[in-house]
Amino acid sequence: MHPRAGTIAQASDLIDVEALLADYYDLVPDPSVPEQRVAFGTSGHRGSAFDTAFNEAHIVATTAAIVEYRAAQGFDGPLFIGRDTHALSEPAWRTALEVLAAAGVTTMIDSADGYTPTPAVSLAILTANGAPGAVRTTGAGLADGIVVTPSHNPPRDGGFKYNPPHGGPADTDATGWIANRANELLASGWRDVPRVPYERARVADTTRGFDFTGLYVAQLATVLNLGAIRSAGVRIGADPLGGAAVDYWGRIGSDYGLDLTVVNPAVDPRWSFMTLDWDGKIRMDCSSPSAMASLTAVMQGDSAPYDIATGNDADSDRHGIVTADGLMNPNHYLAVAVDYLYGGARPGWPAGAAIGKTLVSSSLIERVGASLGRTVTEVPVGFKWFVPGLLSGEIGFGGEESAGASFLRTDGSVWTTDKDGLLLALLASEITAVTGSTPSQIHAGLVDRLGESWYQRTDAAATPAQKAALKSLDPAAVTSDTLARDPITAVLTEAPGNGASIGGLKVVTDQAWFAARPSGTEDVYKIYAESFRSDEHLAEVQTAAKAVVDAALGG
Fold it and tell me: At what angle do helices 172-188 and 56-73 cross, to 10 degrees?
């Protein structure tokens, strides 16, 4: 923990925006250097212009690759493009528009020239392709999209992600092809990619304005009980953390007559108003107690100005929920959301709609599902795994341990197939309005009924070879039959919900579990662990987990 974690950023913590933007245009990547190549992780390509990892060349090449990919797939409808408030998002958005205009792609940009949350782009794509009814993912005229965002990453970073016609994060088949082609263009001549100067691209016949905000806000009433929030007079404090939701929250409050205050409407690409995260960096992680320290301070004591306070990350696909009891652990809130939504609040949902969770999310969600007689579908890490189920209605709610989730409209049709931080933030107020209890109070009731759990993620050192071995482990590599003195009941390398590889290992007992996955960016592997006994037992599980993994890797 950094000594200044949770305190307001100082001048020395802030980036030089002018220097960052200059490097975006001036530095040219060397594709023979792995760190300077295009690489799509779970949420697109990310990097900093300072490191020659997110520069004009990357965006030219990646956009050109997307143009080729969508043409090869027959996606010839409009492309919806949005951006967040990171300093690099504006120039990258402009660069992409120059390439798209030259390629003759009909491109939908925000008609108010504003910022666009990731869920608003997802909703626009799905609406263009037939939502809220049957969504088309094959055939002529299909829409897709690009979101220019590195999510909650520090201010120095940029990000660029592609959403195909299903509206959610692209699968590895798409991202792998796009990244490979982009790197070919980097090596063979990205400067030869056709472009139209921005001033001309902005007014091209193929560049059209689209009211992302109007569509999103108007349709919120199809997925939330906003009337209950209004009638109950729930006092809401919404902090966009300087992100893309900054104008959305005010519009939601005014259009639906809610007692909603935008806690901080400021947009600053340096994020000078943020409190430092656990490692001393500025990071807009709305699930981090350090990053959310300012908002949690406001909610202290009996005179707190809000019943529910919420935060979002820069592209608004994550949520943070603050009550008088403090910032909720994301796993705790997911369990509460599941209990509420499946416990009678959504009678229009398909009777067999399952609960979707990633395999590193809390097992409390599984206990809630069992208590409600609902199937829990456990998938690998990554929101993309929920997309098919949300489209078909086979999954009513999909949630990740990292504070990302979405769920169906009240009639059981699809809402968004990407994470929606505004939706989950507003759900906290609906829960309070309908039940008369805050989500943290409801979680306390779940603990009394189903048991308390202790959950944590830690990192352990690993060589590249060990990481590769962990990613392809066979369950037989685990030779121990106990974990922290309890019999092992399951050893998983594939997700039970869909049979997909988890890229690591999960070991389960009746009272605990751990999962280990290699990091995609550092020489470590991540250990997620949970105990339903005690904090001391959790530490024992973590120690045993490292021993099990080390033994399986031959360490």
Answer: 130
User: Which pLDDT band holds residue 460 (cuts at 50, 70, 90)?
Assistant: confident
* Nearest Cα to Cα of residue 38 among 167, 143, 177: 177
Are the C-beta atoms of 102 and 195 separated by less than 8 Å?
Answer: yes
> Boundaries of CATH 3.30.310.50 in the chain?
454-552
CA atoms within 13 A on the CB side of 209: 8
151 part of the active site: yes
Fold category of 454-552 in CATH: TATA-Binding Protein (3.30.310)
DSSP 346-412: -TTS-TTPEEEEETTS-THHHHHHHHHT--EEEE-SSGGGGHHHHHHTSEEEEEETTTEEEE--TTS
Q: How far is CA 161 from CA 92, 420, 493, 509, in A?
A: 12, 16, 27, 37
Task: Identify whether the C-beta of residue 69 lies closer than 8 Å to the C-beta of residue 76.
Answer: no
Question: Distance (Å, rounded) from C-alpha 516 to C-alpha 496?
Answer: 16
Q: Is the pLDDT of residue 42 over 80?
A: no
Report residue 252: phi and psi, to 5°: -60, -45
Tokens of 302: 């009996």
Which CATH homologous superfamily contains domain 16-214?
Alpha-D-Glucose-1,6-Bisphosphate, subunit A, domain 3 (3.40.120.10)
* Backbone Cα Rg of the chain: 23
Choosing from 89, 122, 151, 413, which is the catalytic residue? 151
Cβ-based burial of 7 (10 A; exposed 0-12, middle 13-18, buried ≥19): middle
Backbone angles phi, psi at 264, to 5 degrees: -140, 105
Buried b (16+ CB within 10 A) or exposed e, 409-420: bbebbbbbbbbb
pLDDT at 43: 72
**Cα–Cα dist 238/240, whole Å:** 6
In sequence order, the β-bridge partners of residue 506 are 492, 515
In one letter, which amino acid is 243? G
496: left (phi over 0), alpha (psi -120 to 50) or beta: alpha
What's this model's pTM, rounded to 2 decimal places?
Answer: 0.96
> CATH 3.40.120.10 in the chain, residues?
16-214
Take residue 377 and report the two structure tokens written for it: 């579908």
Q: Which helix (H) or strand (E) holds 540?
A: helix 535-552
Question: 10 Å Cβ neighbour count for 518?
Answer: 19
Q: What percent of the chain has pLDDT over 70?
A: 99
Sheet with 107-110, strands from edge to edge, namely 40-41, 44-48, 157-163, 144-148, 79-83, 107-110, 207-210
> Quick check: bond before 347 cis, omega within 30?
no
- Answer yes or no: is pLDDT of 549 > 90: no
Per-residue pLDDT, 294: 96
